[in-house]
Every structure is written in structure tokens, then in C-alpha cells.
């Protein structure tokens, strides 16, 4: 086996590890207590389906940007929706909310506008 192939496979492994970490943290991939293979298989299938659903929503919500080499590093736009953000929004909407959907979206926009982004100076509340 050539060394280049081994390096490629080792690099691919890292992507898989990140996917499993996201699934454990976001959709409870490791939160199962089962005794049979069938139940384990159902849990893993539903967890991976939930992660795929959230990832598809995040990818669909990401605006298409054209390549602009002179694009400024700082942007007034909020960061893109992420899987954890979408999971939080869906969880809040599906449980009895204490705030209105409009208030929830305003909170999400405020939060994404104020997250630390490389190249963006910290706001006064974060300093």
C-alpha cells in the first residue's frame, strides 16, 4: 500500500470522528440503554437520521455566496445557522415555549450577530 493512500485514509478518519462527536452531542447517539441488536439499530438509525435532517436544514439555510477575493473580513451579517442553533430553535418551538416564535427568532439573530467571528472585534459585552 503506498504511503499516500495511508495518509488519505487517516485524513478521512478525522472527518468520521467529527461526525460521531456531533451526533453524540447534538442528537444523543450515545444515549441508549438497550439489550438487543434490533433496539440498538433503531436508536442509531433515528439518531443519524435526526443529525442528517439538522445538517440538511443548516445547509439549506446557508446563503449562496459568490467568491469575492476582496470581501471584507468583517461582515454585518450574522453567522450562518449551525446544527446546534437549529436544534435549539426546533427544541424551543416543539416544547411549550415561554416566548413567541418572533421573539425566539429575534434572540437567535441577536446571538448569531454577537458570536465571536475571526476578524470581528469582540463586542463590549464580551470584553
Automatic annotation (TrEMBL):
SUPFAM superfamilies: Ribonuclease H-like
Xref: InterPro entries: IS701-like (IPR039365), RNaseH-like_sf (IPR012337)
PANTHER family: TRANSPOSASE (PTHR33627)
Protein name: Transposase
